[in-house]
């Protein structure tokens, strides 16, 4: 939603002097309270997913993941992410280059506009494309006359996914490239490197961990998006269902074990994302220390 | 204008592409939505966004989002404090886990919370004998909105607390302040801008949330129906004008919140500098 939300928390514990410590009892009470809150809100929901997924045994679990509708949902989710993530990566890199390496008026307005999709409700994010390309929409009649179907079809899902993941990579790269300045690139250009060479050999190696960080967050959201995709998909089984939409259908049919089985793939993806994120935050911290 | 970095190439082409992509994906579709709502006329627009069922959904959406953001402000501050100031087993793991609501798809969170807090669920079963229903009531909506907003306050307060000069606390202590006084008078005022920013971020996210809420809400009109769901309901009834009017009212609120958050962050940075 905002720069602070995803900014790398470079945590370190301060050695706090004796006068600045709470009594041991208060300390343990606060820690216990924090843990109870986390268990109720984070650990148990995650545990429920896996326990429900396996509640009817491994064979039910396997069947739920390999039936044709599940496989087509997995395929569509991977396809949407495979289009949305590289496009937003290309945009993120170009936007970061123009914003971080040059001075121009209206820069902070541009950065705010790039962040806009984060403050739009997922449902509204889907709706705006229905209003533009749907039958009732501005371009609907023209598209229908030319037999092009975007809404309630795969292109709509891809578009909605691009919209909701739009800022992830740009907002990761812009502050990073701004902090790194332009001296290294200027030196490369003065020494005779072309623009491309400078980008590939100087800029990209400097931002590779930040870029990867943005890509991982972007991918997690792209594969998990529900509200926006739900509006544009039309829920056609085996055709326009992504993994989260397939989970919804199974759950609403009271097929809880199958719903949680499919949901468990997304939960695993979330865990992998968190692990990768932690490793990258550590890398970024090391890099920041090296450069300072 | 470009004097300072005149050596570097590629400004016009990268800026051109950035503006083109931004316009095509974000600005044009958003403007089209505003234009579409204008076709309703002011009276039509006003009639849609003030219908009783819509007003009930606003009350629930904003009320529950506010409650969730309050819970998060309280526990987010506690979590940030515990993670920065204390050492205990598993701290690194817990620190990484705080971001789970960002990483876990909302639909998965929704069905997990609904199962957990239903009257037969692991947590819900303890409340059912007391006559408290959590899932399929407005309390369930608050639970879901607390879940998805959880990381915001922690992640805004944590860095401020890490940079906090402990000398100030030592000075307060040596002047005879007790721990609670030091926290109240020295630490809390420094954290306040970040705390408010985190609160506003959690609130803004909660207002638009859909996926994690609809499974646990029960979605009873006038009682536990959130505004984003009402947009979907209108769409399913082919009431495009009504859906658009609701969407525009939500967009206006979102943009207002975005402005407020930007202001808060600027204040926060001024306080840090």
Describe this entry's structure for a reader.
The complex is a heterodimer of chains A (292) and B (273). Chain A is mostly helical. Chain A folds into 2 domains: 22-53; 58-291, MetI-like fold (Orthogonal Bundle), CATH 1.10.3720.10. Chain A has helices spanning 3-6, 24-53, 58-66, 68-101, 107-115, 122-133, 140-145, 154-164, 167-180, 183-190, 195-224, 227-233, 243-252, 256-291. In chain A, helix 6 runs parallel beside helix 12. By secondary structure, chain B is mainly alpha-helical. Chain B has one domain (40-272): MetI-like (MetI-like fold), CATH 1.10.3720.10. Helix content of chain B is 78%, strand content 0%. Chain B contains 13 helices and no strands. Chain B has helices spanning 11-38, 41-49, 52-85, 91-97, 100-103, 106-117, 124-127, 138-163, 166-174, 179-208, 211-217, 227-236, 240-272. In chain B, helix 6 (106-117) crosses helix 8 (138-163), helix 6 packs parallel to helix 11 and helix 8 (138-163) runs antiparallel to helix 11 (211-217). Chain B is globular and about 70 Å long. The relative contact order of chain B is 0.14. The interface between A and B is large, with 113 and 110 residues.
């Amino acid at each position: 939603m905002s720069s602070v939300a995803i900014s790398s928390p470079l945590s370190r514990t301060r050695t706090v002097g004796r006068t600045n410590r709470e009594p041991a009892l208060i300390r343990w009470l606060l820690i216990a309270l924090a843990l109870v809150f986390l268990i109720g809100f984070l650990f148990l929901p995650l545990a429920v997913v896996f326990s429900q997924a396996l509640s009817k045994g491994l064979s039910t679990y396997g069947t739920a993941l390999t039936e044709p509708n599940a496989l087509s949902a997995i395929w569509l989710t991977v396809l949407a992410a495979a289009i949305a993530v590289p496009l937003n990566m290309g945009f993120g890199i170009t936007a970061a280059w123009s914003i971080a390496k040059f001075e121009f008026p209206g820069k902070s307005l541009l950065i705010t506009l790039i962040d806009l999709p984060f403050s739009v409700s997922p449902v509204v994010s889907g709706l705006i494309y229905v209003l533009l390309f749907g039958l009732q929409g501005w371009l609907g009649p023209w598209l229908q006359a030319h037999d092009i179907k975007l809404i309630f079809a795969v292109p709509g899902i891809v578009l909605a996914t691009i919209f909701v993941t739009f800022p992830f990579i740009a907002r990761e790269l812009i502050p990073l490239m701004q902090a790194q300045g332009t001296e290294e690139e200027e030196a490369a250009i003065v020494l005779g490197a072309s623009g491309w060479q400078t980008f590939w050999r100087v800029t990209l190696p400097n931002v590779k961990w930040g870029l990867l960080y943005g890509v991982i967050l972007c991918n997690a959201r792209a594969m998990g998006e529900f509200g926006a995709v739900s509006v544009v998909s039309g829920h056609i089984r085996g055709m326009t269902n992504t993994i989260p939409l397939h989970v919804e259908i199974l759950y609403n049919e009271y097929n809880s074990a199958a719903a949680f089985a499919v949901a468990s793939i997304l939960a695993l993806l979330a865990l992998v994302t968190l692990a990768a994120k932690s490793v990258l935050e550590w890398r970024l911290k090391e890099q920041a220390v090296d450069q300072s | 204008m470009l004097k300072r970095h005149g050596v570097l190439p590629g400004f016009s082409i990268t800026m051109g592409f950035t503006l083109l992509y931004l316009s095509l994906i974000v600005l044009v579709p958003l403007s089209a939505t505003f234009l579409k709502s204008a076709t309703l006329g002011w009276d039509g627009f006003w009639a849609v966004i003030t219908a009783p069922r819509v007003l009930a959904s606003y009350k629930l959406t904003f009320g529950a989002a506010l409650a969730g953001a309050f819970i998060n402000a309280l526990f987010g501050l506690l979590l940030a404090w515990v993670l920065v100031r204390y050492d205990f087993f598993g701290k690194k793991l817990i620190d990484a886990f705080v971001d789970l609501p960002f990483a876990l798809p909302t639909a998965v969170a929704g069905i997990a919370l609904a199962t957990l807090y239903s009257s037969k669920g692991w947590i819900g079963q303890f409340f059912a004998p007391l006559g408290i229903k959590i899932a399929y009531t407005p309390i369930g909506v608050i639970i879901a909105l607390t879940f998805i907003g959880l990381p915001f306050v922690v992640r805004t307060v944590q860095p401020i607390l890490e940079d906090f000069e402990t000398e100030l606390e030592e000075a307060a202590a040596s002047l005879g302040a007790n721990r609670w006084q030091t926290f109240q008078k020295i630490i809390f005022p420094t954290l306040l801008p970040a705390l408010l920013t985190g609160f506003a971020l959690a609130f803004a996210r909660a207002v638009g949330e859909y996926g994690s809420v609809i499974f646990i809400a029960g979605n009873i009109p006038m009682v536990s129906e959130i505004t984003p769901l009402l947009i979907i309901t209108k769409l399913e009834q082919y009431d495009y004008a009504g859906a658009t009017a609701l969407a525009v009212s939500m967009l206006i609120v979102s943009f207002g919140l975005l402005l407020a958050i930007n202001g808060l962050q600027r204040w926060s940075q001024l306080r840090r500098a």
